[in-house]
Specification:
- The structure is a homodimer of 499-residue chains.
- The first copy, chain A, has helices at residues 3-38, 45-63, 66-75, 81-99, 102-125, 129-149, 155-160, 169-192, 207-221, 256-274, 291-305, 309-323, 329-336, 354-370, 378-390, 416-436, 440-444, 449-458, 468-476, 483-496, and strands at residues 230-232, 238-241, 244-249.
- Chain A has 499 residues and is mainly α.
Chain lengths: 499, 499
């Protein structure tokens, strides 16, 4: 090794040590957040807020550290491909964080905190006018935030990149537009179909029974209990590292299928996290890609496995046994895939209408941030769009534009990644089957090794080595496309509803 | 306010913000540690080690920050009494941390990590010779550590101050010596007594039943579930803040009394933490005093309440009901206070012989650190002392000098605080009864308000405002003394064993 190369290696090591410190503090924050949502007694909130916001401050200080700028400049272009990927990822986060004035960071954080009770009251009273001024402020602050990062670009594009930095906004918009153009016809046809899907569940089921069932589902899928755990949370989520990726779920007495779906969804997220490289823990090479890829993993397991016929041929007997009911695999399959075309609530939506809920939010937040829509018009536009895409109209703001918390948190640009993730799930599942052959037999026999292996090799273990766009092309041999999702949806629902 | 006073107030505020940041990071570490001991799946260890050691580094950096030196110099003597107490506490920690070279911090941490598997193997094989070299290294490193803090003072005194900075070592040693001189006669008399205490428990009890019983015990004592929770851990502990102070316990099938005692012990710790000032959270005024005072609170509830006759008149019916056994309050009382004079294991010891186990450890670690005892002599000296104080001799190293983990962690000077805490518990309970009158009726009726109120007013709510020595004198009107404990022990056991 030349002395120059050696010196560069030393700089890289010092840089990486700092990056690891930054990421370990971030993961410590994740533990505090898990605890707060799952374990913490209610009285703990004031102390936990202080602890968490202090870790955020430390995290931010490490990311904006001047030393990082120097290292990045010194390393850029002088290191190998893997190291260059690390430099790329850290530079992006570092520059973004440094672009935002401290004062704006503070105002954003305060505005979100203040917005929460206002939104809660407006939602409880189903009265958007109570929230209007607050939403205006949040939109303005996020426009200011986008301008601080790049005053010359479309502000919505800039915000979208906080959640999905490596899929360009035109590609994302094209995919969402395709969903908007293609799905309503299918949804309409389903609404007009005479088919009534079966529902094998009757009455109510206690949390203990449901927990034992979803635990069995996790066992079936091969969840590694030595590196994870299952708990309940009001809003299910998963969190952790490749050494400890936990899932949460929730149980509604009359909706065991909801618990199964939600648990398998979170399992998908956790399986991605658990598939990251152990050796690269603490660096971008051992960290997951952004929202779209993460959501592709949760949706792949939730929809392409958990809502598939072979899965129910495998799992129906388990439900029968634990719930003491008799029903065919086909009945469970139908119930898992029932389309609720009169549902107004995103989080209760089925696999198909879900995307119309997303398109409504995407179009409205995009236009708000671009300055093409006035905040006061949101309820009217929302209801019009829901009616146009789903054929039903919300009765009030609570089941309309006030239902989601995202904007209250100042998260504009997040919603699209939900649909993009589902679309990518189909594309990845298609590529896996192209390479491995049909996976029905694997699923029906509870053998997930080949599927998991393919995902691990083509997605998980790369961490952030590739950009999202490159990762998709490497894994599937194609550019990001909605084709697979639309084929899948048309075939599956055409069959189910005799279209 | 003069402009000078105003400026000083501003400096104090900046200083305090830094102190809070330091303490919030420390409390975040506490959450990670609780999670690791109670919730974390085993596979999580590698990631958790990185996260925790990073938080320790950040914590240490905040404590050794040069700004802190400047602020401390600027504030010292110019602030009011409360602020001066904060300055005193922070200065002490800051100077101690700065006295230790980074390299030594690292070597200490590595030596403890390396020592753990060696100690575990030696203990498993009951062979001290396997651990001898490691213990020598740990002793040497701690002597070096003590010399770095103050080369001119007794190194054991310096180490003791890490756990108990505000009780001088002569006072501590005098109290331990008094226990060593007074208790063996009582223990001997008990061994010779014909009295056989009752044992109402027969057979084995499952964890679920025991958990429901200790939950009832916590309810009875008034544990605030909105600011705490109960879980199980291999080594019970309590941790947290005034907003969220959690307890853990463990269940052995044949020892429900052990679970009750351990749970009430941890409740005592938690009750101290929960009694700290909310407004002063994050500063020494809202933080607990050191080990002796903390242990006094756990021992007071464990021994003076949980092992008292009136408590068993209150609680016996609860055990009868939940365990389906019939026994008198007197029988439970006798069982809770049985003296096991042939027990070699500290953590299984009764309230009385416990102190002899501590004295053995204290005398040995003191002599090791002072250079008056060679590591190779430890097993022999240990066994001789146990035989002298307890009248029984360990058969092997595992039930002798290898039983405790403390030295493996490099903790020399910790053991004495266990006994000092029990002694202080008696002194505080005596002072409370002097002021409030006899508390038997309160305890028997499950009314702990007056006792809790007294402890809160005289101990908890002061945080670290007073030094330990001053706190004891303020609360009891006397200097720290073993008199109350010895009176209590002689009276209680004299009565129990017809001496």
């Amino acid at each position: 090794m030349s002395s120059e190369a050696q010196q560069s290696e030393e700089v890289y090591e010092a840089f990486l040590e700092h990056v690891r410190k930054y990421n370990y503090v971030g993961d410590a924050s994740g533990v505090l957040s898990w605890d707060q949502q799952v374990m913490m007694p209610e009285g703990g909130t004031p102390a936990r807020s202080k602890q968490s916001s202090t870790l955020s401050t430390v995290h931010h200080e490490l990311l904006t550290d001047d030393k990082l700028s120097e290292w990045l400049d010194e390393l850029d272009g002088t290191v190998d491909d893997e190291q260059q990927a690390v430099v790329r990822e850290v530079r992006r986060s570092h520059e973004r964080a440094n672009a935002i004035p401290e004062d704006l960071v503070k105002r954003l954080s305060e505005a979100s905190s203040n917005a929460l009770p206002v939104w809660e009251e407006a939602k409880a009273k189903s009265d958007f006018s109570l929230f209007e001024e607050t939403l205006e402020e949040l939109v303005e602050l996020r426009r200011e935030y986008a301008a601080a990062i790049d005053p010359d670009r479309d502000p919505y594009e800039v915000l979208f990149e906080d959640y999905e930095p490596y899929i360009d906004i035109d590609t994302a918009e094209a995919i969402l537009t395709e969903l908007r153009e293609e799905l309503p016809a299918l949804i309409d046809a389903i609404a007009e179909s005479d088919v009534e899907p079966a529902d094998p569940f009757e009455g109510e089921y206690d949390a203990e029974t449901q927990e034992s069932l979803v635990t069995e589902a996790l066992d079936t899928l091969g969840y590694d209990w030595d590196r994870g755990r299952l708990d309940t949370a009001p809003h299910p989520f998963s969190t952790g590292t490749q050494f400890d990726a936990r899932v949460t779920t929730r149980f509604a007495p009359d909706d065991p299928m909801g618990a199964i779906g939600s648990t398998i969804h979170e399992f998908g997220h956790a399986s991605y996290t658990l598939g990251l490289s152990d050796d690269d823990y603490g660096t971008p090479l051992g960290d997951s890609r952004d929202m779209t890829v993460h959501e592709s993993q949760s949706r792949l397991w939730e929809n392409h496995v958990g809502r598939s016929k072979p899965f129910w041929r495998l799992f129906a007997s388990e439900v029968e046994e634990q719930f003491g009911i008799t029903a065919s695999p086909q009945a469970f399959y139908e119930h898992a895939n029932e389309v609720y075309d009169d549902n107004m609530i995103r989080v209760e939506a089925d696999e198909l209408t879900y995307h119309m809920h997303i398109v409504v939010r995407f179009e409205i937040e995009r236009d708000l941030i671009r300055g093409d829509l006035d905040v006061s018009e949101v309820p009217q536009v929302w209801n019009d769009k829901v009616e146009e895409y789903l054929g039903v109209r919300p009765d009030n703001d609570a089941e309309g534009c006030l239902q989601d918390i995202h904007w209250t948190h100042g998260n504009f640009g997040y919603f699209p990644t939900y649909s993009l993730g589902s679309v990518l799930a189909s594309q990845l599942f298609g590529a896996a089957e192209r390479e491995l052959g049909d996976l029905d037999d694997d699923i029906e026999s509870g053998n997930f090794d080949r599927l998991y292996g393919w995902l691990n090799e083509n997605v998980h273990e790369h961490g952030c080595r590739y950009t999202t766009t490159d990762l998709i092309e490497e894994a599937t041999g194609e550019a990001f496309t909605a084709e697979y999702f639309l084929d899948y949806a048309n075939k599956k629902y055409g069959n189910l509803y005799n279209l």
